[in-house]
Design a protein that fits this description.
single chain; mainly beta; Immunoglobulin-like; 1 helix
């Protein structure tokens, strides 16, 4: 009489085991901030390759912050995690990545130390515009033709500032971006343009100045 009862109890225990106990662990990504004199920051997959694109879901971020002058700050949809600038730290974060773009940077050196990656469906590649400034000329072209008018939307500006005496400065509705005057620079700006007038110029030479307009898209009838 005890054997049927024992078998029934064992069956109940087996049924009550949580299904999560057999689930695969969250993938681990490795974030590293270099020493004080290295100015390096990275986020890598388990195989050592740089993180460029991920599927949505849960991930573990193992952080090795080796400097008291830098930190690792990860932001994006639903995520805002950081180490301290003033301390050497190791950390383990469990995050859920959603569709969108995520960025990581050192808060003390956001220009020199930064990176980004996408999650989920990739956004469309914006149309490319090429800006250039020299000692005597400034231009903005699309496929070799001067830009005079555009429709509203997202655009990638690839800027070549080839001299140390001028800069490329773009202004318009919601936009104010420029390169430095005292340095040769190549820059890429992903910008959303809205209807209105835009000006690109050099801040050191009033003659190096041109404009273009952005028009609203007409909805289909």
């Amino acid at each position: 009489m005890f054997r049927p009862l024992l078998a029934a109890l064992l069956g109940a225990v087996a049924v009550s085991l949580p299904a999560a106990s057999t689930a695969s662990p969250a993938p681990t990504l490795n974030a590293v901030v270099g020493t004080a004199d290295s100015f390096t920051i990275s986020l890598k997959n388990p195989d050592g390759s740089a993180v460029r694109h991920l599927d949505p879901g849960m991930y573990t971020i193992g952080v090795d912050d080796k400097s008291t002058l830098h930190n690792f700050h990860l932001t994006g949809p639903g995520v805002d995690q950081m180490t301290s600038v003033d301390n050497i730290e190791t950390a383990s974060w469990t995050v859920v990545f959603q569709d969108g773009t995520y960025t990581y940077k050192c808060d003390a050196h956001p220009v020199q130390m930064k990176g980004s990656f996408t999650v989920g469906a990739l956004p469309p590649v914006p149309a490319q515009l090429n800006g250039k400034v020299t000692a005597k000329a400034i231009s903005l072209t699309s496929k070799g033709t001067r830009v005079r008018a555009l429709f509203e939307g997202s655009y990638r500006f690839v800027i070549t500032d080839s001299v140390r005496t001028q800069n490329f400065h773009l202004t318009g509705p919601g936009v104010n971006r420029k390169t430095g005057i005292r340095a040769k620079t190549k820059a890429t700006w992903n910008l959303k343009l809205t209807p209105g007038k835009y000006v690109y110029r050099s801040d050191k030479n009033r003659r190096l100045r041109r404009t273009f307009t952005v028009k609203a898209k007409v909805p289909p009838a």
